[in-house]
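Tokens in:
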């Protein structure tokens, strides 16, 4: 019978439908592969094998010793010669008999772009990179109040953001109460001087009057140099000079010329920016790599040639329910006041994890439920291997289970190999089921 050209299309379509049906039937659980005496070895959804109970030798299948191509998924007699079937153990099998292993010739490897990389044991660090915002160190904020009431005669610091030095005069206040006390102090000094030759009781009372007036001036926070001037010149000052006791920038200004001020009023709020905070966020999954006192490297895009070293100062106790992140506070010196509150910065935290087994990050296939790689075996075979990974490090994953030092894994084109591996596993199961049915 002559085969016409259109028949080739029908034949190819039939073969394709048969393969698809076999794969679908296998995935629905309709087939068993010759894996163990109690039935097929269980496979994950990605066709990587389930673990075998500890202490047991894994049986791949049962076969006829005279005709090894005759296989079964359970013990029995060979259908052709009647000999007892013997088990094939996993530790006796070659790479081609590993579940899901596929053969790929060197020429085809080059064609599909297969690349490999080793699994190595080496010192590793976990590096966390995040962004942050510079903030004022709240422990270095100072509020300036006066201890006296009066009218403002002059304001020396008159706009927000102005820089002031410790001891600098910020305003002058006319206070009738202070002026009266200074006059009283001057009179007490003169009285004490005039009683140098008087009886001891009179001198004692004069000294007590001086001490009382001096104590009131000190409680009103009159500077020591002003008291010395008053004692030396015996001339009361019309105004009191209010000075700051720290260096920093004015954050709030609440006083103007001519205002009447009282002790409960906040006149200035000053922030010392020689040390600042940086507020960063860290995903809750990375919290194990963050601890108080840990060194942090901070850079700012405004100054690409500069870097600052700070420490983790505080880890906040709550998790943001929307972003699943935790706020972390850094503290770092700010010489030259270069870092400004509100500025964006980049932060890098490093945690030494010691010596670990590391697999290249490109090699890992993550299904969302489990992870596996393709291990290179002798004879150009590639075997799927389920693994368990730990921390993601700079160029790979820490391996907790499934691989050993020296293993070579596929780092490119592994998804093409994975597709062929799953198809091969399905077809092998279909073939085994057919032979067992006979």
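Residues out:
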């Amino acid at each position: 019978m002559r085969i016409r050209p259109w028949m080739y299309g029908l034949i190819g379509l039939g073969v394709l439908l048969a393969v698809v049906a076999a794969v679908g039937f296998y995935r629905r659980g309709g087939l068993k592969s010759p894996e163990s005496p109690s039935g097929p070895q269980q496979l994950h959804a990605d066709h990587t094998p389930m673990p075998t109970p500890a202490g047991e030798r894994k049986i791949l299948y049962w076969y006829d010793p005279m005709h090894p191509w005759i296989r079964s998924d359970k013990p029995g007699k060979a259908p052709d010669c009647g000999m007892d079937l013997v088990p094939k153990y996993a530790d006796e099998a070659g790479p081609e008999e590993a579940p899901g292993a596929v053969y790929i010739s060197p020429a085809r490897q080059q064609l599909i772009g297969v690349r490999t990389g080793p699994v190595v044991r080496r010192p590793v660090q976990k590096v966390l990179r995040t962004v942050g915002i510079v903030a004022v160190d709240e422990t270095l904020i100072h509020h300036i109040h006066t201890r006296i009431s009066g009218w403002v005669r002059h304001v020396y610091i008159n706009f927000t953001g102005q820089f002031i030095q410790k001891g600098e005069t910020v305003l002058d206040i006319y206070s009738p109460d202070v002026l009266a006390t200074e006059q009283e102090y001057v009179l007490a000094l003169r009285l004490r001087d005039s009683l140098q030759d008087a009886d001891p009781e009179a001198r004692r009372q004069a000294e007590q009057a001086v001490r009382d007036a001096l104590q009131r001036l000190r409680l009103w926070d009159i500077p020591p140099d002003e008291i010395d001037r008053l004692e030396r010149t015996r001339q009361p000052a019309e105004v009191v000079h209010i000075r700051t006791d720290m260096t920093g920038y004015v954050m709030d200004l609440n006083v103007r010329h001519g205002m009447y001020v009282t002790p409960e009023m906040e006149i200035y709020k000053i922030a010392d920016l020689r040390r600042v905070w940086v507020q960063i966020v860290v995903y809750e999954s990375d919290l194990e790599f963050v601890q108080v006192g840990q060194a942090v490297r901070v850079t700012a895009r405004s100054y690409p040639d500069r870097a600052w070293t700070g420490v983790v100062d505080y880890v906040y106790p709550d998790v943001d329910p929307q972003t699943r992140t935790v706020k972390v506070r850094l503290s770092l010196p700010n010489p030259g006041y270069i870092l400004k509150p509100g500025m964006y910065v980049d932060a890098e935290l490093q945690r030494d994890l010691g010596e670990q087994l590391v697999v290249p990050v490109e090699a890992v296939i993550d299904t969302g439920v489990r992870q596996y790689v393709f291990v290179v075996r002798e004879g150009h075979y590639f075997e799927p291997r389920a693994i368990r990974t730990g921390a993601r490090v700079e160029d790979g994953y820490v391996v907790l289970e499934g691989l050993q030092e020296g293993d070579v894994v596929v780092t490119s084109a592994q998804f093409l190999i994975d597709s062929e591996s799953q198809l091969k596993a399905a077809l092998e199961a279909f073939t085994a089921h057919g032979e067992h049915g006979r």
